[in-house]
Design brief:
With about 80 residues, this protein is mainly alpha-helical. It has helices spanning about 25-35, 40-80. The N and C termini lie far apart (about 50 Å).
């Protein structure tokens, strides 16, 4: 897999220079990799990004569970109809 060169205007980490697709991912990176070096504003941005990420993950888990339940009962009904 080839690594693409990030655009020039991509948000970059001020500590290590890594580029990120959006600011939220950059803020998460700073909080996880450079927590002991970030200032209060960056720490607040990390905590906000972390809460947003947690909300998105919870939503994904609920949707994935719903899809599995629908799939399970769909196969169960299909099995019941085929074996009649």
């Amino acid at each position: 897999m080839t690594r693409q060169t990030p655009p020039e205007d991509a948000p970059r980490c001020s500590y290590c220079g890594d580029a990120f697709p959006d600011e939220r991912l950059r803020d998460l990176h700073r909080g996880l990799e450079h927590y002991d070096r970030i200032d209060d504003d960056e720490r607040d941005a990390y905590e906000d990004a972390y809460r947003d990420e947690e909300t998105d993950l919870r939503s994904f888990r609920i949707r994935a569970l719903a899809a599995l339940v629908v799939l399970y009962f769909g196969f169960l009904i299909l099995y019941a109809l085929v074996t009649l």
